[in-house]
Design goal:
Two copies of one chain form a homodimer. By secondary structure, chain A is an alpha+beta fold. Chain A has a single domain, classed as Transcriptional regulator MraZ domain (Chemotaxis protein chec, 3-Layer(aba) Sandwich), CATH 3.40.1550. Chain A is built from six helices and eight strands. In chain A, the strands form two sheets. In chain A, strands 1-7-8-4-3-5 form a six-stranded antiparallel beta sheet. In chain A, strands 2-6 form a two-stranded antiparallel ribbon. Chain A is globular and about 40 Å long. The two termini of chain A are 24 Å apart. At the A-B interface, α2 and α3 of A face β7 and α6 of B. The first copy, chain A, binds a DNA duplex through loops.
Chain lengths: 147, 147
DNA sequence: ATAAAAGTGGGTAAAAGTGGGTGATTGAGG
DNA sequence: CCTCAATCACCCACTTTTACCCACTTTTAT
């Protein structure tokens, strides 16, 4: 199982191409078959799951009853935003326009490793996100990790 | 098994022809034999099942008790609206008039991958559908994916 | 210090998406 | 039964986007 971590600031060129940081690349399982699934994050960022990690979610989705209205809505939201991309010969993926628009990414991008996936942020948005949390890191950590 | 995903905005010409998005085309199994079954969706959209996926539903349908009035209604709605089409030399299918009328599709169409099938929406109707869901995506996601 | 790997940028051939013409097929009306 | 119009299948043509290759600079490893 993959476990991504770390943070990098990389360029994104005018074709939407971003390199996958070498350190994170090492965490990709061969089962991913050089393929990522891109989708929107819960926050204002774009996320990329290696194929093998994504498949775990696919399995869950397939068990949902499509005759239920709520389930259909959920599936449409998830799936409509999802797209499969392959890593090119230069270890890059390319993000299509809708993802750049959604996240406001342009020119520079912050890449964050988040365990089973990678996140792409507009650098200013990432800054803003961090500073919007008035609670101290220690406090949140204490709450989250309470047994 | 096929797994469609993604969302595209494509043109539909005055002959009713729509390209199958290349990304979704890659998810079609060869068993589908370049054939789709078109029918109406549960919502105001047109749906297309690759032949092999449709056959799974056919099996389910044939187990339904036809002496039950509700079952008969359901089967008539599904089957009366179903039609088989083949992908042409340019990777397109053509939607006959009744589907365009039902869904209000004209000129532009939103194509959504939904696991075992593809959906075709009038862009405005799709917008409306999304905005009619007052519940936030996170909320629904939390409910649906609750273990 | 040098070689290898990582990150960045650009050119080009192929694929994808879109539109139209034509001859065969069908089906309604005379 | 025949005719004409509408529909459809097939072919070709064009534009835009994507995939693939090469090249260069910077960083890392030995």
């Amino acid at each position: 199982m993959s476990f991504f971590k770390g943070q990098e600031v990389f360029s994104i060129d005018n074709k939407g191409r971003v390199s996958i940081p070498a350190k994170m690349r090492k965490a990709i399982s061969p089962e991913a078959n050089d393929t990522f699934i891109i989708t929107r994050g819960a926050d204002k960022c774009v996320v990329a799951y290696p194929l093998n990690e994504w498949k775990k979610y696919e399995e869950q989705y397939s068990t949902l009853n499509q005759y239920d209205e709520k389930n259909r809505y959920f599936l449409r939201m998830i799936l409509a935003w999802s797209e499969e991309v392959e890593i090119d010969g230069n270890q890059r993926i390319s993000l299509s326009k809708k993802y750049l628009d959604f996240s406001g990414i342009d020119g520079k991008v912050v890449i964050v490793g988040m365990m089973d996936h990678i996140e792409f942020w507009n650098p200013e948005e990432f800054e803003k996100y961090l500073s919007n949390h008035d609670e101290s890191y220690e406090n949140v950590a204490a709450q989250v990790m309470r047994k």
